[in-house]
Amino acid sequence: MGVEVIVSQILSYFCKENYSDKFMKYFYLNRFVRSVFGIAVCLFAFVSCSDDEPFSDNNIVVPPTTDTIPSEGVVIGDENLRAALLALLQTDELTTENLATVTTLSLRAKNYSTLEGISALVNLDSLTIDNNIGKAFIEFPAEIASMKNLTYLKASSVFRGTLPDSLSGFTYFSVGESFLGGNIPPRLMDLSAERITLNISRSRFMGLPVDIWRKLCADVEKYQMSQSLAPQAAGYFLSLYDPDSALHTQYHADGDFEIYQTHSKGNGINMFILCDGFDYSCNAVDGIAEKVMKFSVEQMFAIEPMTSLRDYFDIYLVYVESPEKGMTYSSDGETNDWEVETKFGTHQPNVNNRYYLCDTPGILDFIAASTGISPRGGIVMLVAHNMVHGGSAGMEYVSDRTSFSVSTIEPKFAKTVWHESVGHSIGWLADEYVESDNAMSEIPSDTRDYYVSEYDRWDYGRNMAFTHDTASVWWADFIGDERYADEKIGLYEGGNYWGKGVWRPTENSIMRTYDRDQQFSAPCRAVIYKEVMTRALGEGFTYSYEDFVKFDMKDAYYPLAE
Fold first, then answer.
1. CA-closest candidate to residue 134, choices 169, 108, 110
2. DSSP state letter for 147
3. Sheet of 152-154: strands edge to edge?
4. What is each CA distance from 6 to 3, 15, 33, 43, 85, in whole angstroms?
5. What is the Cα–Cα distance from 215 to 231, expressed in whole angstroms?
6. Residue 3 falls in which region: left (phi positive, over 0), alpha (psi -120 to 50) or beta
């Protein structure tokens, strides 16, 4: 049957014989055309809106304008990103060839809704996104994991979601103040690189691989120390995790210990390393706690004079199982940001004060019960499972020289160990910094008299003086010694928390600040040397300034002319 016959019959239905006038024929013809169009629209809608893709406003596709049609298969999902790339390349179209020429991309002060298509920049090695106006948090693009040349990413307050497990090879990765969460991928940072920087603070991350942590903390000379890992956003806590945990089959029990080193010189000085806030999962053989404690030992002896004194120590690693993983701390000193139960109740009452509290007598008893060796007269270092900056050293056992310190697993870990465990705990050195409230204040006479009395009574704080008479200070021999001219040893006012009436031996040292590349000053090294040798040799040791200089300068030593 021909189309014209079908149409004729349909028209005859709509145009009845009793409607023979022209007006009515045109009326029904118009109704016929509109009906056919309506049927066609319904059929189209039926085909387009299947059960797999229910119709909604999100399915409406607006045809792109001519200048946004992708060229040669290049798909850039965001108009502003396309505009930025077109401007950078000074072209009117994006191709795989011209996108391959981009190695550095800086996106600033724009409204980016997605980075879809970013992987088309196959040779991109540096990406910066700042001030993402209006779209503060966009989904982290999984395709970045395929960009093998990308090693630098700076994008604070930009992303949400999680990081792909396959993300790897970065030397600089800064995504702090974001809505990113979950674990840091185990191969995110290029651990073979000379220097790496990771900034993830105030986000929602829960786990940092222990090997990345060791790399960050070990690069003490080049890594820019900052609060770059913690704290996380309210309600989130960053702890260490082991990507190989599924492979572990053996675990250390609570109270197990191992001898990490036996002394080869002197009588041996007992040193005990243990952790708090590390649960059963952390105590696998070659697991998190073991790696942390061994790393702690290596950092303690990575600075002089400890490097040259290492052979005098017996070092024990003591395994502790806490009920929960992590550490209690407070930002305001009133309510806890995070609260967990640990073996020794270690916690940070106020992050602004940095110090930590714990059950020190309980820790000493635990060491004695576990090892059968009394820690009294020895050195104890507790590692707290918290990446918020802090640490402390107890001076309550100075009478029998029992050294005790706490350090947290923060980016400044090595510096904290040096300041707290080596400086305060082993050397019994005083702080050389000045509290801001006391910067212009003279130390009160009663406070000064107390310090003088205690320092003389217990022979500590020998890096502090309360007189500006160069002949009377403990480090008088160093002043004017040409062999230490580079250290500019003298009298520098300010220390022991007060700005005036107190003097220290050098402008800066690890006892004054560890936000820079600081070491122990020569007078501080001498005090630590004296303490260790006295413990190791007992009555067989008598301190001599010239003997120290020989020890300190080694092959560079030469005697002063008579």
1. 110
2. -
3. 104-108, 126-130, 152-154, 172-174, 197-199
4. 5, 14, 14, 20, 57
5. 19
6. alpha
For residue 343, CA distances in Å to 362, 388, 394 come to 9, 19, 19
Q: What angle do CA 541, 544, 550 make, to 5 degrees?
A: 105
| CA 409 – CA 358 distance, rounded (Å) | 16
Which residue carries 């520098």 as its tokens?
Answer: 492
Q: Are strands 328-330 and 336-338 parallel, antiparallel or unpaired?
A: antiparallel
Number of other residues whose CB lies within 10 A of the CB of residue 272: 27
Q: What is the mean pLDDT of each run of 10 residues along the chain (562 residues)?
A: 46 42 41 43 38 32 39 78 95 94 92 92 95 78 96 94 97 94 97 92 96 85 66 94 93 98 97 98 97 96 97 98 96 91 95 88 97 97 94 84 94 90 95 94 96 93 96 96 97 97 97 84 98 95 97 96 72
Q: Which residues contact 207 (CB under 8 A, 6 or more apart)?
A: 182, 183, 184, 238, 239, 240, 241
Q: Contact, 383 vs 293, CB < 8 A?
A: yes
CB contact at 8 A, 527 and 462: yes
Q: How far apart are CA 212 and CA 203, in angstroms?
A: 18
Cα dist. 129→82, 114, 126, 139, 252 in Å?
A: 15, 12, 10, 13, 45
For residue 126, the one-letter residue type is: S
133, two tokens: 């106006």
What's the distance, CA 29 to chain centroid? 77
Cα separation, 467 vs 443, in Å, equals 12
Place of tokens 């990413």: 153
Q: Identify which of 550, 515, 512 has the alpha carbon closest to the alpha carbon of residue 529.
A: 550
Let me know: does 423 contact 524? Beta carbons within 8 Å.
yes
CA angle 254, 260, 265 (to 5 degrees): 140
Q: What whole-number distance in Å separates Cα of residue 213 and Cα of residue 194?
A: 15
- Output the CA angle 364-367-368, nearest 5 degrees: 90
DSSP string of 431-442, one letter each residue = P--B-GGGTT-B
Residue holding tokens 């705990």?
425
Q: What's the predicted TM-score (pTM) here?
A: 0.83
Backbone angles phi, psi at 115, to 5 degrees: -110, 25
365 beta partners? none
Q: Where are the strands (E) in 432-540, listed by range? A: 492-495, 498-504
Cα distance between residue 502 and residue 87, in whole Å: 60
Nearest to 290 by CA among 281, 247, 239: 281
Nearest to 257 by CA among 277, 247, 271, 268: 271
Say if CB 289 and CB 275 are below 8 A apart.
Answer: yes
Would you call 104 helix, strand, or coil by DSSP? strand
**C-beta of residue 110 within 8 angstroms of C-beta of residue 80:** yes
pLDDT at 29: 42
Write the CA distances from 536 to 267, 394, 467, integer angstroms. 5, 21, 32
